[in-house]
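Two quick folds needed for the group meeting slides. Do the first one here.
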Amino acid sequence: MEQEMINISSQMIGTISKESSVLGLGCWAFGGSDWGDQDDNDSIDAIKAAFNSGITHFDTAQAYGRGHSEELVGRALRDVREKVFIASKMMFTPREKVEKSIVASLKRLGTEYIDLFYIHWPRKDADLEGMMEGLVLAREKGLIRGIGVSNFSVEQMKSVAKIGRIDAHQTCFNLLWRWGERELIPYCIENGISVISYSSLAEGILTGKFNRTLQFMPGDHRKGTVLFDNDVWPHVYDGVEELKKAARDINRPLHELAIRWILSRPGISTALVGSRSSSQVYQNVKAMEGEIDQAAFDCLTKISDNIMNVVPDTGNIFRWYP
């Protein structure tokens, strides 16, 4: 199956001197863990389909399959490296080990530099400022082009920003999880930090494919996330049914509207969407086609406001606090 390239707009992220598509491919599932079984050939096909469809932003991490996702991203994109924007991440690493860890990612990705490199998660009582010093040095050496943080609070961002410029913050943001609108996104706007959304389809919920009664495959991490809690899911399910009805009235699939809604929100630079096959990529890329009236976004926001009234602010959807 082939699809013509869609005109996906691009923009700069932070101070990085390369454009990035506003729709990015999230590559977590390609690691082969946390989402159930994943075939490497399907992963490579998805990455190539994304590029051929106009996506240039590819987001991976050392933690995704212990580097396996990085390897597949590098293998699939090696012939078009200068045309793509590659982002990766590392968990907390002491200052003196930062460069060695980045070099390992470079080797797996088969590249001489990484466009954007994140501190994946903050760690309590860890020397995050020291880690930031290591990232600043790596940027000065040209191993990375930009520095990002993910899942940081405003106070944690202020702490590491004293050491070096933050180009981007990657956070969970979607129609079912908007806690970042309170403090995080306004802070990023004020300080010229690009905001990149992950879980843009809320762990797949905003595809509308889940039934009221949930079933997960072995190895699927999602069964433990907040939105699927027994006392939360029934309300989320009902809210999604309302969103699906609104989507039918607009005559667009819900997942397309959910992606475009994110990109319509203040401060959001890029929406990352995971895809496990080329067919899923093509479905998601269709979100970028055509104009959507502001009234449609307003309708989605109103429904989202009601859903958010029953979603607890647990800090992150995974309730993971390293």
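Then this one, please, same format:
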Amino acid sequence: PLRDAGWSLPQLFIARQLSGQAYKMPLYRSMALIRIVAWIVITIAMFTVRPPALLVAIFFVMYTVYSLTSGVAGLPFMDIVAKTIPPRQRGSFFGGRLFWGGVVSIGAGYLVTLVLEGHLGLGLDFPANVGALMAMTTIVATIGLIVFAWVIEPPDPKPIEMAGFWDHLRLAFQLPHHDLNFRLYLIARVVMIIGGI
């Protein structure tokens, strides 16, 4: 729930400002930096914080920060993908991301089992074993964020003029009724969320 709400809610409020900017990558990069810092804080906390309540609080605060900044970065990400990948190749791009992400997650699940059960010879007890997993997550996430941040973004030829906030919200709620592709996209997202549950 934190991840899904964090992804969706900020976009409703920042889309208006972002539409008037020719380049979206600066926002993506600044959000990537905050996301990396959130993972680093979680990782350090796993190795240094002992009171369980404080550890859980740090995790949830940092994961909320990570989720919200992911949502803010989601709009620049989608905009840059739309500007750099031709429309007929976007399905393959996102399908490939989901497929290979699923394949890698199977291997990652096995790695999690090995680390948590102590089969790798690390000799780590809880919460340090989870900290080791967080450190691996931080490294992999950082690499992914940096690689995308290197994309050379073409400018928007004509940034959209910003509407007022309430006009923006009204248009956002009317969009599914007027745009079949967007309506189908929303239905697909809802089905994916229900499937994830």
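Slide caption for protein two: The radius of gyration is 19 Å.
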